[in-house]
Amino acid sequence: MGFPVSYYCPHCGSVVELERDGYLADKSVTPYPLEGWEYADPADDFEGADGVHFVCGESDASGVSWTDVESDADDVENPGLASPCGRDFYLSFVKYEDGREVEAVPESDYVVIGGQGPPSPRGPNAGPGGPGYF
Ligand SMILES: [Zn+2]
Prior knowledge:
The chain is mostly beta strands. The protein has one domain. It contains no helices and nine strands. The protein has strands spanning 3-8, 14-20, 26-30, 39-40, 51-55, 64-70, 88-93, 96-97, 100-101. β1 (3-8) and β2 form a beta hairpin. It starts with a strand and ends in a 33-residue tail after the last strand. Bound molecules: zinc ion. Zinc ion is lined by residues 9, 11-12, 14, 56, 83-85, 87.
């Protein structure tokens, strides 16, 4: 059996409780999907996925409960937003490949700063020097 863990929407701070297995390690909750992660709906068998895709206030599953609480954390993007806001956000689990933790590369980091060339392509091998690629 799982146990409830609380997360908050990075857009509006709306707090959701998700019941899940304890062996999964959380990496982050972000307003965008991480490159290379596969997300499942909370109603699906997300414990076999890399993370969970929520729609703020709308995702509905037996293990999901939206609370009336709004987080006042500093990294909530838009605390003034009506809550729940109905936007997408993503819970990512820690992922391992060949025994090493896979680092996520945020999309905004794909731009090469100070380089002469164009930004890196978004192909599967994008992300210079990222672990997990050879
Ligand atoms: Zn929200």
